Fold:
Amino acid sequence: MLTGKNILLGISGGIAAYKTPHLVRLLKKAGANVRVLATESALKFVSELSLSTVSQMPVLDDIFTADADGERTMHISLGEWADALVVAPATANTLARFSSGLCDNMLSLSFVTLRPGKPVLLVPAMDGYMYDSPSVQRNLSVLKAQGCRVLEPESGPLASGQCGLGRMPEPETIFEALSSIFAARESAALEGRTVVVTAGPTREKIDGVRFLSNYSSGKMGFAIAAAAARRGATVRLVSGPVTLPTPPGVERIDVESAAEMLEAARPLFDGCDLFIGAAAVADYRPEAPVEGKIKKNEAAMVIRLVRNPDILAEFSTGRKPGQLAVGFALETAGGLEYARKKLTDKQLDLVAFNIYDGSRSGFEVDTNVLTLLGRDGSITELPLLSKEEAAGRLLDAIEKLPPR
Ligand code: CTP
Structure:
């Protein structure tokens, strides 16, 4: 759930801050990218060196830190970069800063620059009397009303020597809470949308018993269909011949040839919000397939091939405003320019450049290495991922595209 997610971890000055390097470890182990924002008092409870070592990034505590381009606007770029902000521990002071919109340290500033709709998880930890005070409770209700999630403190021994409510939940609990926020968002992100996916190879008949095809397994397209259904979309999957089970909640139409795939997909064009061409459609078909079986009477034979219709291009060039078109470009290494050309030639919103290396990426295998090129010029290089994870990241990128 957290693979590839950009997490801002804000730490404010409470004793529980000493547990945060472990939280960073859990997030990193799950494949998240973590940037730590610590307040001055947080660094009295936990060392900057521990946090920068486990997060593999410098800790940010200075508002005027420069970003990679040397601009002194790191707080703005962080707000754009982050997929979520977690604040653990969130002290009474930090909650007060957040609820009033103060921007006097890197953490409070990043809270304000975080892009709308991105989840914020607050993990208050303080003495029980402080926690119950009307001021803290008022700030928490303001923040909850703004959409922030609050992971309630637990009861147990406190730093004051007393026993009661106020302890920060263990890093594992915070990690689980964040994962379930992403799971819930994922389940609803495509609610009300209709997604059409093409998948698998096509078979182009030579005669009654032979065909031309390719090694596509359909795994990538099926993973995309499954991920879109999990996000609440109505999903129609037009599939060439594969041996995969239909993902839960997906409506599947089986076809053989490119012509059949087009015939099945065309009636779905009008009602779809997003068309994803993940099928490895044969570019050519035998011009005149033979009825019955060709006998080997000749020493050599020539089969004349003619071009197949381009299903994705037909959709994208004839579509209505608001509909999105996404394609794949399978190329051997160095084919990024071909992928970019496909984006423009087929008038796509996004193309997934799929590096074919024959072992970890491409047909038949369970993993993939994709580079996503958006029509807005964005380039997202994904690491080697399972096809399920790659499908999720592709949908994340599609959801971020500006409306058409
Ligand atoms: N596609 C399609 N219908 C076709 C051919 C391709 O819908 N007849 C879609 C595929 O599903 C994929 C993208 O278009 O999303 C791939 O484009 P294509 O031009 O087929 O790429 P390649 O054949 O891999 O590249 P090229 O022929 O340029 O070497």
Remarks:
- The chain is about 35% helix and 25% strand.
- The CA atoms of residues 80 and 147 lie 18 Å apart.
- The two ends are 28 Å apart (CA to CA).
